[in-house]
Amino acid sequence: MNETSREAILEQARQWVRKELERDSSGHDWWHIARVTKMAKRLAAGEEADLYVCELAALLHDIADEKLNPSKEAGLQKVETWLEQARVTQEDRTHIMDIISTMSFSGGQGKPMSTLEGRVVQDADRLDAIGAIGIGRTFAYGGWKGRLMHNPELPPREQMTVEQYRSEGGTAINHFYEKLLKLKDLMNTNAARAVAEERHRYMELFLEQFYREWDAEDAADV
Ligand code: ADP
Ligand code: NI
Known about the structure:
With 222 residues, this protein is mainly α. It contains ten helices and no strands. It is globular, with a radius of gyration of 19 Å.
């Protein structure tokens, strides 16, 4: 397949995904996709991964998300159908479906990505969950769910029932400990690890300042 038809497919994907995710407020809006795609291309260049596969998989990675579909099978089928009508080659279709089904929702979590392109796109998605952007997305998600940003009187998770945790436990601050601060050590590529280090430090500084303000410690000398 030549460069021109690949670019035409990528352009068609951008338009479709933008339209599909335009109104999403759960953290999978079009601009998340745009950032992940940009990062995936940068990482791919450094890793000498297939740029076209990385870009196409990044563009499509959240379309099949369970939160946005009746089931994960339905979500994956939607992507598969789109790839066929766009005349993506059988080989690339299989590769892209493998990436998306492994990385994009809880079913695949924990399973290592089987190709370099998969590792690149997964890193790009994880990088968007940390740093300043990650902090912003976490608070936006909490607002969308109607949750508190922080509750210093929260009992340890083991002492809460599932219902209690759902209604009051899942604060934005809690999410840092459950997920965000762990992502740095889960990066696949060296380039992503370096970016993650800096974003991780930024989150630690944020938390430090957050607790200072929470307890008015920054006014201690006033
Ligand atoms: P993705 O698959 O793109 O990484 P997720 O569906 O896991 O996205 O989450 C979307 C955004 O919402 C991410 O920034 C994530 O950190 C945030 N998020 C997910 N679950 C929670 C939660 N329980 N509390 C706060 N933020 C959350
Ligand atoms: Ni994503």
